[in-house]
Design a protein that fits this description.
Blueprint: E1 4-17, E2 21-28, E3 32-38, E4 57-64, E5 71-78, H1 83-87, H2 89-105, H3 113-128, H4 136-147, E6 162-164, E7 169-171, H5 183-193, H6 197-201, H7 207-225, H8 233-241
Helix pairs in contact: 2-8, 3-4, 4-7
Length: about 240
């Protein structure tokens, strides 16, 4: 009989397999990025797709078999309902974006409990948020960089007004204009590095400025993760907050 493992997981993505199977891609609190195979998915089959919405936090029971590299999901239950994310278009769009960024950057590896705790706390903050969520993903991306080990050095000053994405620091003049943020976006990054969530949400920004900053932060993530990061949900995010 296979041994069972209990854990907590954050849902990133669902890939259908056949008529009633799926692989649920998650971040596990102990094991990091994992793929969990689930059977009986679909109408009338006992397993609801809605349970695996973006950023759902689940308490899980899994088991392994010699026949597959995937873990099998035997039991699951929502650890937190997340009604705010599920019922609000703006929040669910932010959740879609965050899920995709995590799905495209995290790799199967040993778990990082500190990163998982931060992710869980940020999901709960999004769910409980009252008021506009338009700047949430900007604050989240800056925090995610820090949790992944490449926090921008906060050495901004009027004499060093440009953020260089390669050196991850503010500089007086760029070695390459392609790797530097504009003075306005560099100043915004400096503000976000020193802002609480409430302060970040209150920063007045146009839709075009949010878009440009988002694209550059994804470029920064691409440089430091060493991957070409194309996040399709960014267009949806901009459409909702434009």
């Amino acid at each position: 009989m296979p041994s069972l493992s209990k854990s907590r997981a954050i849902v990133l993505h669902l890939t259908r397999q056949g008529d009633s199977g799926a692989v649920v891609h998650v971040v596990d609190s102990e094991a990091g990025r994992q793929g969990l195979f689930v059977r009986g998915l679909g109408k009338g089959r006992g397993v609801s797709v809605a349970a695996f919405h973006n950023l759902a936090i689940l308490d899980t029971v899994t088991y392994a078999t010699p026949r597959s590299s995937l873990l099998y999901l035997r039991e699951y239950a929502p650890a937190v309902p997340l009604n705010g994310i599920r019922s609000d278009l703006a929040k669910s769009t932010v959740a879609l974006f965050i899920s995709e960024v995590l799905y495209r950057t995290l790799r199967s590896d040993d778990g990082d409990p500190d990163l998982f705790k931060w992710l869980e706390d940020s999901i709960l903050a999004l769910d409980a948020l009252e008021g506009p969520a338009a700047n949430f993903h900007l604050w989240w991306m800056v925090g995610y960089c820090a949790r992944c080990g490449f926090r921008p050095e906060d050495n901004w000053s009027p004499e060093r007004p440009l953020f260089d994405m390669v050196s991850a620091s503010f500089v007086a003049s760029p070695a390459s204009t392609e790797s530097c943020l504009s003075p306005e976006e560099s100043r915004l990054l400096h503000l976000l590095l020193n802002s609480s969530l409430e302060e970040a949400l209150a920063i007045p920004l146009s839709a075009s400025r949010r878009r440009s900053f988002s694209e550059n932060m994804l470029k920064y993530l691409s440089i430091h993760f060493g991957v070409r990061l194309e996040v399709k949900s960014l267009e949806v995010l901009h459409a909702v907050f434009s």
